[in-house]
Design brief:
Elements (H helix, E strand, L loop, with lengths): L1 H15 L6 H10 L4 E9 L2 E13 L2 E13 L2 E12 L2 E13 L5 E8 L1 H4 L13 H14 L4
Antiparallel strand pairs: 1-2, 2-3, 3-4, 4-5, 5-6
């Protein structure tokens, strides 16, 4: 009888555990499914349009697994393009890819900043150093908050 109870406990415990998907597994799933939400908008500064943004959310088994956010802005002599990819497990970020490009409009020269944040780094409060002096931590936290809190039930 003890063996049966132990077997039942182990079986129940094992099946109740959810296995985290790897980044490559999430990439593979995202290629095969349609996005749950896609949205876009314009960015204004002092009532003047300076760019636009877009975001896309993917769900798998009714859970957020992947999202991306892009943003393009143009001010005076520079144009910025931001692209962020977010990978999730249990609606918490486990991996973030960052790609920011700054282009000089006059001479077309380009600076690029790329970074990848693991689970610990993606949930840290420590600022992410970058050559453009953008407050990336606040920006990423705002984007993640919007993705998670604007998911339809």
């Amino acid at each position: 009888m003890k063996k049966l109870l132990i077997l039942l406990f182990i079986t129940t415990f094992c099946f109740s555990q959810e296995k985290a998907l790897t980044i490559s597994q999430i990439d593979s799933i995202v290629k095969k499914i349609r996005p749950k939400i896609e949205s876009s908008g314009i960015l204004k500064k002092k009532k003047k349009i300076i760019g636009g943004f877009g975001n896309t959310i993917y769900e798998y088994k009714k859970k957020l697994i992947y999202s991306y956010y892009n943003e393009s802005t143009k001010e005076k002599e520079f144009e910025f393009f931001h692209f962020y990819e977010f990978y999730y497990f249990n609606e918490s970020p486990i991996f973030i890819k960052i790609n920011i490009e700054k282009t000089n409009i006059k001479d077309k020269s380009k600076e690029v900043f790329k970074a990848e944040l693991n689970e610990t780094e993606s949930t840290s409060f420590k600022e992410i150093k970058n050559p453009f002096l953008i407050n990336l931590r606040m920006k990423l936290n705002r984007i993640i908050f919007d993705f998670i809190n604007n998911m339809p039930e």
